[in-house]
């Protein structure tokens, strides 16, 4: 499989970027490693002259960057997402170092999946609800007493690990047959619709009974993101939940 094909399956997603210069610097960092797919989620300012100036010629990356209003839209089409965090967070998902993260990202791309590397706001990083939409977290092992890594520097570290891993595995690989569309993992948007339906179903069947809905949904998110269900499996689950809601409605009517 050509490197260009793998590059096309890897994209960098910057969430709520405050300083437009960091967008330009991140574009430059990506371009030096051969990557050009950039998605911006709710940037404070873009396009902006400072972004263009600090891109230092990576105008093609900025010119084709997608701008989305929220992370769900930003991850549309993605089936494997890695969230970058400078520190351990309260979201219980697998934690990888950059080399491990790059290896898993490339393995997914080789399977034909669309992969996202997700970076948070410069000051706060990724919020827990944003990190919960990722399959794993990548943590750059900085020193504990000064973990303030600039956004574009974090992008450079990850882009470097990705390129190094790609070059190490550049030997031709036989192209896989086109998968059955129903057998590929559900993408981020499809999973979000499933989680919305699941949350509504749990409410309809009065599952929580005093327990925290937030805690339960976080645990269920972790479970289903780890399982990575296929589209056919999601349809089965949607059908089960629809029947549960229908039966709950009948029970409530009788009451």
Short description:
The protein has 255 residues and is α/β, with parallel strands linked by helices. Helices cover 49% and strands 11% of the residues. It has helices at 3-7, 20-32, 49-55, 59-63, 71-74, 98-110, 128-131, 151-168, 188-204, 213-227, 231-254, and strands spanning 10-15, 38-41, 66-68, 80-84, 95-96, 115-119, 136-138.
List keywords for this structure.
7-stranded parallel β-sheet; 255 residues; single chain; alpha/beta
Strand residues, percent: 5-15%
Number of strands: 7
Instruction: Give the biggest sheet.
Output: 7 strands, parallel
Mean pLDDT: 91
Give the ordered list of helices and strands: HEHEHHEHEEHEHEHHHH
Secondary-structure-based class equals: alpha/beta
The N- to C-terminal Cα distance equals: 61 Å
Strand arrangement within the widest β-sheet reads 3-2-1-6-4-7-5
Q: Which range best describes the helical content: under 10%, 10-25%, 25-40%, 40-55%, 55-70% or over 70%?
A: 40-55%
Low-confidence stretches: none
Radius of gyration: 20 Å
Q: Please state the overall shape, judged from the principal axes of the Cα atoms.
A: globular
Give the number of helices.
11
Give a verbal description of the structure.
It is a single chain. The chain has 255 residues and is an alpha/beta fold. It is built from 11 helices and 7 strands. It has a 7-stranded parallel sheet with strand order 3-2-1-6-4-7-5. Helix 2 (20-32) runs parallel beside helix 8. It is globular, with a radius of gyration of 20 Å. It starts with a helix and ends with a helix. The mean pLDDT is 91.
